[in-house]
Amino acid sequence: MSTITASRISEVVEAVPTGLFIGGAWLDGDGGVPVEDPSNGSILAEVADATPAQGLLALDAAVAAQKDWAATDPRQRGEILRKAYELLVARTEEFALLMTLEMGKPLAEARGEVAYGAEFFRWFSEEAVRIAGRYAVAPSGGTRLMTMKQPVGPVYAITPWNFPLAMGTRKIGPALAAGCTVVIKPAAQTPLTTLALAKLLTEAGVPGGVVNVITTSRSGAVSEPIIRDPRLRKLTFTGSTPVGQRLIEQSAQQVLKVSMELGGNAPFVVFADANLDRAVDGAMLAKMRNIGEACTAANRFIVHESVAAEFSERLAQRMGAMKIGPGIDDGVQVGPLVDAAAVAKVSELVADALDSGAKVLTGAKTVGDKGYFYAPTVLTDVPPTADMFHQEIFGPVAPITTFSTDDEGILLANDTEYGLVAYAFTENLTRALTVAERLETGMVGINQGIVSNPAAPFGGVKASGIGREGGLEGIEEYLETKYVGIAL
Ligand code: NAP
């Protein structure tokens, strides 16, 4: 049962402009792209389908606006971002509902994403006025060394479907603060949130051409000419590693500055001395946030053999008791996966693990005959050779394996091409710090199942990416350092 009425849904969806937002105007595309509600397969809306030529038109607009935007006072850019933050918080319910409808996450989580996403505007509104270079005397004396920070120039931002708001604000916030203009392309499956955001940014005072939005069913054909255009100066991408690799290749032609937030395969390591209450709470968050469809989702549970049975039982009890259903229904904790292909992939990975000898403690099945639901699943005795230990599951499945020594646990944790985030649970400070140093990831959560924080540098190493978003580091991705040598 939901307290959200059909007329409320129509009101919120119909308030979203569905055109291409280019140079401050809403334009038609070449036909439309349907946006599906994954909880029931119904079509929520159709958004404009941009052609490659219209993609370049959006870049024209960003290029035309770049000089004036870079010349605005930092305080003015900060004030606009601050206003955008306030508007977003005031419209939490509308943005949360849109995300639940187009992506599937439960409303409570969607509200959490609005709070998280809005914080990037607040954080970077505060950073806009703290962009500074330095001044030094050369070691040999005489020459003075000065650096200045300048906006890199027009940015192309490509975002995924799993966090439709926050992945956009995490890029738009620092770009605008630094003085860069933006063309943003959301995933075709979840364009409504970004289109609603463009409307909000205009209300906040962002001038026409500073943020442009293109939606398209042909992401490759539309993106490549933009990336290869010498007027573009920065590409920021969040999505899968194979697509990121292709985009890095395309970026090589004009030696584009790139940020890549790519896939993950997070280990969740529970040591013998862990506080199991905290470990199970942390596991629920690390695994079930966003229905497991997060790059930061715990993908491999590596648990000390002395506590594995108790940890597994307790996790299975919690996961098995979760309420599954459409994200707009009251009390739902597990919404649908994004599409039929996601359910098929999760089912295949589970079948492979079972063939390899894994045992089911809970779940391991699809749910219902409408929408794309998969039951929260806990598997034990999963051999480290199983496919799900080497690929992103992107669903509500927790595979558990065991280890006996710290060295063995860390070896297992690092046995992946990815390096986004790792979680470790221990009550021993020395072990926590040693493990944090030895884990080959860009981020580590100690005794906590979530690391995302607008004030912290988010990003990965190895096949998980290049660059950092958020924190003091986030704005650097949109700035160039110019050195000026001055002879005295
Ligand atoms: P994806 O298929 O790589 O898509 C991501 C974005 O790239 C979408 O906007 C997509 O548009 C676009 N795209 C796809 N092919 C393209 C091409 N050839 N040229 C230009 N753009 C292209 O990934 P996804 O399945 O949507 O998202 C899930 C992935 O994102 C997971 O691997 C997850 O780990 C990763 N992720 C990483 C982070 C992080 O910060 N590290 C955060 C969230 C998600 P269309 O969908 O419209 O084609």
From TrEMBL:
<comment type="similarity">
    <text>Belongs to the aldehyde dehydrogenase family.</text>
</comment>
<dbReference type="InterPro" id="IPR050740">
    <property type="entry name" value="Aldehyde_DH_Superfamily"/>
</dbReference>
<dbReference type="GO" id="GO:0004777">
    <property type="term" value="F:succinate-semialdehyde dehydrogenase (NAD+) activity"/>
</dbReference>
<dbReference type="Pfam" id="PF00171">
    <property type="entry name" value="Aldedh"/>
</dbReference>
<protein>
    <submittedName>
        <fullName>Succinate-semialdehyde dehydrogenase / glutarate-semialdehyde dehydrogenase</fullName>
    </submittedName>
</protein>
<keyword id="KW-0560">Oxidoreductase</keyword>
<dbReference type="InterPro" id="IPR015590">
    <property type="entry name" value="Aldehyde_DH_dom"/>
</dbReference>
<feature type="domain" description="Aldehyde dehydrogenase">
    <location>
        <begin position="28"/>
        <end position="484"/>
    </location>
</feature>
<dbReference type="InterPro" id="IPR016162">
    <property type="entry name" value="Ald_DH_N"/>
</dbReference>
<dbReference type="GO" id="GO:0009450">
    <property type="term" value="P:gamma-aminobutyric acid catabolic process"/>
</dbReference>
<feature type="active site">
    <location>
        <position position="261"/>
    </location>
</feature>
<dbReference type="InterPro" id="IPR029510">
    <property type="entry name" value="Ald_DH_CS_GLU"/>
</dbReference>
<dbReference type="InterPro" id="IPR016161">
    <property type="entry name" value="Ald_DH/histidinol_DH"/>
</dbReference>
<dbReference type="InterPro" id="IPR016163">
    <property type="entry name" value="Ald_DH_C"/>
</dbReference>
